UniProtKB/TrEMBL annotation:
Keywords: Hydrolase, Metal-binding
KW Hydrolase (keyword) present: yes
GO CC annotations on file: cytoplasm
PANTHER family linked: XAA-PRO AMINOPEPTIDASE 1 (PTHR43763:SF6)
Gene3D superfamilies in alphabetical order: Creatinase/methionine aminopeptidase superfamily, Creatinase/prolidase N-terminal domain
Entry keyword annotation includes Metal-binding: yes
Annotated Peptidase M24 domain residues: 312-528
The family this protein is said to belong to: Belongs to the peptidase M24B family.
A GO MF term: metalloaminopeptidase activity
Listed name of the protein: Peptidase M24
Domain Peptidase M24 C-terminal: 539-599
Organism in which the protein naturally occurs: Sphingopyxis alaskensis (strain DSM 13593 / LMG 18877 / RB2256)
One Pfam family per UniProt: Creatinase_N_2
Top-level taxonomy: Bacteria, Pseudomonadati, Pseudomonadota, Alphaproteobacteria, Sphingomonadales
Domain of life where this protein originates: Bacteria
Length: 608
């Protein structure tokens, strides 16, 4: 693949580096808030390389360049990035530091933007380069921005008040909780940089990042429960100003760095996983006593209150109706031919919008036909758009943002008759999904301790999937939310993960991907809930499934299910029909009844 556009952009960046006396530069997918999803203005890696994934880094040297992505993007990066311009480097098998260590020379100066990287990453790379006699240099202004003529400006959309009736707790109460935490730790202030933490703490929402209702802002919260909010003035309406009250001082976002110097002599909490290196440097240069602590909003934001849980349950029912209507439409239209991935994604959005409550999608819909389904984080566009053909599987991973909740659901359907291999793999994924959905576990259990439940039936056949099994989800906030997750232990350190707490929302999404052929994923969201068990000697937890839409029964090999697993699927489908059918017209209700019918467990069906 040859890409003259990206060759020209790479040349422009190299010329800019040379003019600044730099020999290299690191380009992450990140913003000043260490966000997972970033605004258009911060899509520097996509502009430079053509890579459209949500996680990755590029490194540029005078004669070499590379892109670094994890296993989710191994195929995608080769489709989108010119291999004659950039080496493809897999992580964690390798790293930016390792690649640079193999290619830099003594005396070379590699630049980085301190507003786009974490402090530990910077210090680690400084050591790696020093070992080669090279140096890492912080830049005042990003050279990619200088080379990017038509770079979009950051969004100036106003923020809005998020009603306490939906939040379940006032912003004053939330600030009080954080102030109590600061006092208990003997701290004066905490620096808050994560956009979803700021939105949650101040009960505001915004439109500055695609699919995530947050506003670009920084905040300082103090032990007296007052706060300083740094945000573009045009984003603050009279209603928001009145909502924030006199205890929240509003400043221009550009004043944030200078305000850090005003904390001289104070004890300040900073989250190294969410605050960029420039913040640590500014505080240390000002003589601030910096203490590393996790953002104090992270855990209370993840543990939903009863108002938030009631809201998200309602949002999921609304969303389930839309998804079910889409599945009916797909069953009728897709086998006729002529439908493609973009058309299917657009139709699904139509069904969500028809409900009248949709604010936005919660992420770009993964609408993947045939071999595209084998790319777990596939993103359809005009160049990759594929027809949905008979004899293939179609995977759709999608979600909606509603004022009362955030949804995320994946369904895989067969277009025409599925093969025996498709049915076997689908059933193994379903068995793992059920095993996790029905798990009971002691309080204090971490997600990594549950991950194997979802993989065990695939592992028995010598296959696996390269993504986590579950991520946290916000309520009208980020569709990917920490600190909870269900995945293999990161670096083997299960003890460093956050235990699962009642009130947390997670996804349950095992999958299987056969490169070049098909992909399978079944995803519902679940709430961690207390479990009452007769004779229990431990405080126990389990999961309440809150996503309701039919699971493709024609892809289930009933002979591979235990009777308990078949009972679970029948009970789940009975709940889908009970919860979604009210208000449906007769044709839709009839279709849903058929889609949710009990499995055929007759000897003939089991032998098929």
């Amino acid at each position: 693949m040859s890409s003259p556009v990206h060759a020209e952009r790479l040349a422009r960046v190299r010329a800019e580096l040379k003019a600044r006396g730099l020999d290299g530069f690191i380009v992450p997918i990140s913003d000043e808030h260490m966000s997972e999803y970033v605004g258009a203005y911060a899509q520097r890696m996509a502009w430079l390389t053509g890579f459209g994934g949500s996680a990755g880094t590029a490194a540029v040297l005078p004669e070499k360049a590379a892109v670094f992505v994890d296993g989710r993007y191994t195929v995608q990066v080769r489709d989108q990035v010119d291999g004659s311009l950039f080496d493809y480097v897999g992580v964690p098998q390798s790293s930016v530091a390792e690649w640079l260590g193999s290619h830099v020379s003594a005396g070379q100066r590699v630049g980085y933007d301190p507003w786009l990287h974490g402090i530990d990453w910077v210090r680690g790379l400084e050591k790696a380069l020093a070992a080669k006699g090279a140096s890492l240099v912080a830049v005042d202004k990003n050279p990619v921005d200088a080379a990017w003529d038509d770079q979009p400006a950051p969004s100036n959309a106003p923020v809005s008040v998020y009603d306490t009736a939906l939040a379940g707790q006032s912003a004053v109460e939330k600030r009080g909780v954080i102030a109590d935490w600061l006092k208990a730790k003997g701290l004066d202030t905490t620096v808050m940089t994560a956009l979803d933490s700021i939105a949650w703490t101040f009960n505001i929402r915004g439109e500055d990042v695609s699919h995530t209702p947050v506003g670009l802002a920084f905040a300082l919260l103090h032990a007296d429960a007052t706060a300083d909010l740094f945000i573009a003035p045009e984003k603050i309406t009279d209603a928001v100003r009145a909502h924030l009250g006199n205890s929240v001082r509003i400043h221009d976002r550009s004043a944030f760095e200078g305000a850090l110097a005003g904390l001289a002599g104070k004890k300040v909490a900073v989250d190294p996983d969410r605050a960029v290196a420039a913040i640590f440097t500014a505080l240390e240069n000002a003589g601030v006593q910096v203490e590393r602590h996790r953002d104090p909003a992270v855990l209370p934001k993840a543990i939903k209150n009863q108002v938030e849980l009631s809201g998200t349950r309602a949002a999921h029912l609304r969303d389930g109706v839309a998804v079910s209507r889409f599945l009916k439409w797909m069953e009728e239209v897709a086998p006729q031919g002529g439908l493609d991935e973009l058309g299917a994604a657009a139709k699904l959005r139509e069904f969500r919008e028809a409900g009248g409550a949709l604010k936005d999608l919660s992420f770009d819909t993964i609408s993947a036909a045939g071999p595209n389904g084998a790319l777990p984080h596939y993103k359809v566009d005009e160049t990759t758009n594929r027809r949905i053909e008979r004899g293939t599987l179609y995977l759709v991973d999608s979600g909606g943002q509603y004022a009362d909740g955030t949804t995320d659901i994946t369904r895989t359907i067969a277009i025409g008759a599925p093969s025996a291999e498709m049915r076997r793999r689908f059933t193994q994924v379903l068995k793992g999904h059920i095993a996790l959905a029905t798990a009971r576990f002691p309080k204090g259990t971490r997600g990594s301790q549950l991950d194997i439940l979802a993989r065990q039936y695939l592992w028995a056949d010598g296959v696996d999937y390269a993504h986590g099994t579950g991520h946290g989800v916000g309520t009208y906030l980020a569709v990917h939310e920490g600190p909870q997750r269900i995945a293999k232990p990161a670096g083997g350190q299960a003890g460093t993960e956050e235990p699962l707490h009642a009130g947390m929302i997670l996804s349950n999404e095992p999958g299987y991907y056969k490169a070049g052929h098909f992909g399978i994923r079944i995803e519902n969201l679940v709430i961690v809930v207390p479990q009452e068990i007769d004779g229990a000697e431990e405080e126990m937890l389990g999961f309440e499934t809150i996503t309701f839409a039919p699971i493709a029964r024609d892809l289930v090999d009933v002979a591979l299910l235990s009777s308990a697993e078949a009972d679970w699927l029948d009970a789940y489908h009975a709940a889908v029909f009970e919860k979604l059918s009210p208000g449906m017209d007769e044709a839709m209700r009839d279709w849903l009844a058929a889609a949710c019918a009990p499995l055929d467990r007759t000897p003939a069906a089991l032998a098929a």
